[in-house]
Amino acid sequence: MCAVLLPSLAGAHPHIFVDTGVELIADDAGRLAQVKVTWAYDDYYSLLIAQDLGIDQDFDGQASDADRETLTGFDMKWIEGFNGDLALRIDGAEVALSRPIAPTADLTGGRIITTHLRDVADTPVLGGAMVEVLPYDATYYTAYDVTLPVRVTGAEACMIETALPDIQGKLAELQDQLQLLDRDTDIADTDLPQPGAAFATRITVQCPGV
Question: Which of 50, 132, 147, 180 could bridge across to 89 with cysteines, CB 3.0–4.6 Å?
Fold first, then answer.
């Protein structure tokens, strides 16, 4: 089993690259109400989508009003159960998010940039909580790099930290865990992390309590 899985893990690599930004939005009561996500797709994938949708016919890398209308929502057609490649945790507990709302899309400099909002279930109190945001595709087909702004709106003096993944170190950990399994183990029955989760950038946000 290790002989089969280790090469595939070592060779795991994404096919789509997305620069990502995150905005946490607090309401007037200091509760986390929404998360706004920005995705800026790589040049090649943007070109493929533009060709598929028939936009940017003058090839100037910019969207017309009609192009923006066609683009908006192209990446929001989520199947049931899809988490939007985003995990949100408050004090270590997973928090549910709504399906995407208020999508926008544009093409600028040859890159497609989209945004969407997601409502946060139960609107937890933001002040004094440890908030974790992890943008990732569990299969690692898409790589989300947190290179765009991460901010908090509606709360002040929040501390924001971004921890980049140690990909080589995570691969070594997965290798060590695989070597402990016997040949009859079904990999689906183990608690081994999926590559995307292991390689995710971790955003932590802490805002002062009242």
Answer: 132
pTM listed for this prediction: 0.86
Question: Per the structure block, which two tokens stand in for 22?
Answer: 């995150």
Domain residue ranges of the chain, discontinuous segments joined by +? 2-206
pLDDT in the model for residue 184: 66
pLDDT less than 50: residues of the chain: 1-11
Is residue 200 exposed (0-12), middle (13-18) or buried (19+ Cβ within 10 Å)?
Answer: buried
* 33-59 pLDDT, tens digit each: 999 999 999 999 999 999 999 999 999
